[in-house]
Amino acid sequence: MTDTASVEVSLEQAIDKSVHRHWSAWLMSQQTFWVSMAAVLAFVGLTLASDVFATQQNLFNVARNFAFVAIIAIGMTAVIVTGGIDLSVGAVLVLSGMVIGMTMNAGMSIWLAVPLALGAALAVGAFNGVLIAYVGVPPFVVTLGMLSVARSLAMVLSNNRMVYSFGPDQPALLRLGGGFVELALPFGEAIRIPNPLIFLLVLLVLASLTFRWTRWGRYLFAIGGNERAAILTGVPVKAMKVSVYMFCALCAGIAGILEVGWLGTITTSLGQGMELTVIAAAVIGGANLSGGIGTAFGGVVGAALIEVIRNSLTLLGISTFWQGTFVGSFIVIAVLFDRLRTRNGND
User: Fold this and answer.
1) Contact, 125 vs 248, CB < 8 A?
2) Is the pLDDT of residue 9 over 70?
3) pTM of the prediction?
4) 230-247 burial string, b = 16+ CB within 10 Å, else e?
5) Residue (of 126, 110, 120, 230) closest to 172 by Cα position
6) 11: phi then psi, degrees, rounded to nearest 5
7) Of 83-87, 155-159, 320-324, where does mean pLDDT reach its minimum?
């Protein structure tokens, strides 16, 4: 009996150790884990190096600023998972912002202006998706062209002028993007959570559940993993591609509305160059540009790391011109990490 009991205990210990090793190895192999650790270490380092970084006002600004990029990064991750790319998100952001700005400036209710702005974004996404899926034009070409078209339409709508008056519902728009929710804590002072961060958290939960547990999410990874095999197994690849570009454009449209509400003004330069930052956030967060790999959480973590870098350069008195160097370096490191992980997996 004693020998049998000893064997059973040893077997349980071996199983526990194997499971622990399995999860540890899996966690250590995840790019999102290392990016999260880098963001945490940067946060701790900046807290120690600067008296300003950990203040409530600065953290509020960081959370709000990164939320705009992170919202679009979730949509971009979905596109990259299918093996595509969307260079038009910055232009969609300004087009959506200009639609809501001009319609409200003309006296329209915010309840009508918001659907119109999101509708404009969805129309751009549908146009991109149809040309890519049904006509066969490469995503890079289509979305690069739409980058110019959408920004040009924003200029036409506003006659290339700044809009800062949003009619009778202006306070509602300013609260939407610039407002916050105050959360009382059992100790210390209450913290303020910016509205864009709340929108981001809701979108993150919905996107994560959709990617992981729905047929739409499984189809995304099937297309990115092997498009021909996905077609043979009955996946509606063309319709899926249209839907994913519409989803990415919708994310950009939401970010555009929120950013106009925060700034209290809209110009045609809004979102210029943002597509590169968004793609960087998705890639740094673990999305593979070849398709088939990526998570919504990874895109959010990548956006957070980029914003922490940008904020740290300002606080430490370093020229913001160095931001591109740091972000570009992180992209190269992320791609190299993925290559090494893939090579080790093949071995």
Assistant:
1) yes
2) no
3) 0.89
4) beeeebebeebbbbbbbb
5) 110
6) -65, -40
7) 320-324
